[in-house]
Amino acid sequence: MEARSLLSEFCSNSTNLILQKTRKLSTARIVSSSSSFIQSHNRVSFKTHYHTKLVSQRVEIKRRLQCTNSVEKAEDLNAVVKDSGNGVRHKKLAVFVSGGGSNFRSIHEATVEGRVKGDIVVLVTNKSGCGGAEYARASGIPVILFPKTKETEGLSPTDLVSALRKFEVDFILLAGYLKLIPAELIQAYPRSILNIHPSLLPAFGGKDYYGMKVHKAVIASGARYSGPTIHFVDEHYDTGRILAQKAVPVLANDTAEVLAARVLHEEHQLYVEATAALCEERIIWREDGVPLIRSRENPNVYS
Hints:
Blueprint: H1 2-24, E1 36-39, E2 43-47, E3 55-56, E4 60-65, E5 74-80, E6 91-97, H2 102-113, E7 118-125, H3 131-138, E8 143-145, H4 157-166, E9 171-174, H5 183-188, E10 193-197, H6 212-221, E11 225-226, E12 229-232, E13 242-245, E14 248-249, H7 256-279, E15 283-285, E16 291-293
Parallel strand pairs: 6-7, 6-9, 7-8, 9-10
Antiparallel strand pairs: 1-2, 2-3, 4-5, 10-12, 11-14, 12-13, 15-16
């Protein structure tokens, strides 16, 4: 009940701040022409019996979120309405982690540097003391605990969906999150949840394949190649549609730790590239349901 009340208060406070900022914005210059109303995510123009110049606004809102239990305290959170420069607005991202969150960190750095046209607005974790959660707190990113258990005050699946809606999340990125994603979340975010797996799926995937277990199994099998896979999430472990892969050689004297480090290096680059494509709306779905990434430089080239 406390988590629900907090989320409701957060939404109300954010709305009041937006209204206060909006009242201070300068009005559009009115010139001449016909009647209609046109609105997009970042630009608004009005036409009554006049022709109005397009008003492009960048709104920066300082929000203070006082949180306990499931949603932790985050001060001076910046919510910025942005345009990526090509007519596609900045997307809002939620990242799920269970451990150190190295992929989370690499994606966050890419958003800060502008290589990804999006912003991580919330972190979800099942382990409040994990490295990824600590990094989020240090970066001013709110942390949500999920799922709810006998030992923790986490959110239920329904409340989690509500929380992500409050944060206006566009896409969800799983970055070492070891829990099965609930059906409620998948239904609420169709074709909008990505996961990264440290093998070339469908090989070495499934419930019991995660972390170092994957790399040990790859070496034991005699496979000559491994590497990361990024796929969309469905209601099962590692069975969603594959979006991107990167082959990594398995060398004769590799240990699981050495192979893991080689694969992780490629994970960081591949996940950033896939997230950038997601935020720039460059993912195209083929008629047979296979997702493809359209090249930024050449729209006629897909990978």
